[in-house]
Amino acid sequence: MTTAAAAIRVLIVDDSAVIRGALGRIIDAEADMTVATTAPNGRMALDALKHTAVDIVLLDVEMPEMDGITALPRILSGYPNTRVIMASSLTQSGAEVTLQALALGAADYITKPAARSGSSTLAAMQAEIVSKVRAIGRAVQRRDPRAQASGARTTAAPSAGGTGHTPPAALLASKQGSASPRVVAIASSTGGPNALADVLSGLPTDFPLPILITQHMPAVFTALLAQRLERDTGRACREAVDGEPVLAHHTYVAPGGYHMIVRTEEAKPYIQLTLAEPENYCRPSADPMFRSIASVYGASTLAVVLTGMGEDGMRGARVIHERGGRILAQDEASSVVWGMPGAVVHAGLASAVLPLANIADAIQTSCGAHV
Is 312 known to be catalytic? Predict the structure, then answer.
């Protein structure tokens, strides 16, 4: 028996009453989510959590008495069944502090509405807020023993954020590539920055194969993400540049606002950045990256699909699979949202479904003699 899911309960934390009101109207306009309460700073948010059950905290950064970065680890440690989404501004300083918050354990971020935002910008922000709260909130409720005990949901319903439970690896793709990989392509979204850091830090600093990453992020964030990954891994990592060669020992991050694809000239692969239409509502999108890499490297492609909402990467993974390449998918239990990897798994394209902690070892094992 499947019963209706409980509404996603949201705590909005911002020192601006205008922003609290704007976010509250967006949340309360959705039938499947509700504002449980609000708070003007981190200290009062922690007080509210003592008395109010919450699935999602929308947390501002700069607030009096206790700011978001100070409150974040206290929320996560005190309320492990709650996820935090940071409210960020699209500025250099906003991006830096948001990446800091993600490293501390925030699940994702939303773009804060601004007083001078145009109607189209506000509509895009509203769609982002609703989709992320819904995807992360449903994932929280599926794992929250309180929801299971109350009988709010007996069967996980499909959603934009993921579906069902991870099937055993033995029941996955029957055909597994036999060619030695010459490239690693990684797709990620919600929860991706931390997942990427975990996977890449698990590889040796002299890992020789080029790694290409599409992480759903705006332009101001992706260069900072590349810097963080280089610092955390000790391997050369940069935001990709149009026309540059794909080199061994290097990691490339797709710049926000551009698709990153691979082309060849005189049999030498190079990166091309394009402003082609968004795919899966994203640019950069993993699907064009996967398709292009499959066309260049064929069966020597190793793809990895990490945590993220939606289905980006699934169609491109199908092309990789058809060319004889391999696809590793992160499992549901270790994903913030099991949308992207779940789509690959349910399409029967994954060579293996693995906890995040095992993916780096699986990459090295798949690459065999190359590492």
Answer: yes
Axis-axis angle for helices 17-28, 119-143 (nearest 10): 70
Active-site residue 216, yes or no?
yes
H or E element at residue 321? helix 314-322
Structure tokens at 176: 């597994």
Q: Are 281 and 160 spatial neighbours (Cβ–Cβ below 8 Å)?
A: no
The answer to whether 176 and 351 are in contact (CB under 8 A) is yes
Measured CA to CA, the distance from residue 343 to residue 63 in angstroms comes to 39
Structural tokens at position 247: 């080199």
pTM of the entire predicted model? 0.88
Supply the DSSP symbol for 41: S
Point out the catalytic residue in the list 88, 108, 159, 216. Answer: 216
Amino acid at 295: S
Tokens standing for residue 81: 């069944």
- Cα 208 to Cα 139: distance, rounded to the nearest angstrom: 36
Question: Residue 369: how many CB atoms within 10 A of its CB?
Answer: 5
DSSP-derived letter for residue 336 is S
Nearest CA to 304 out of 262, 246, 349, 238 is that of 349
Nearest-angstrom CA–CA distance, 36 and 370? 53
- The token duo for 127 is 């769609």
Catalytic residue among 88, 188, 189, 292: 189
Cα separation values, 228 from 100, 202, 306, Å: 10, 15, 18
Q: What is the pLDDT of residues 288-306, one digit of tens each?
A: 999 999 999 999 999 999 9
pLDDT tens sequence across 208-231: 999 999 999 998 899 999 999 999
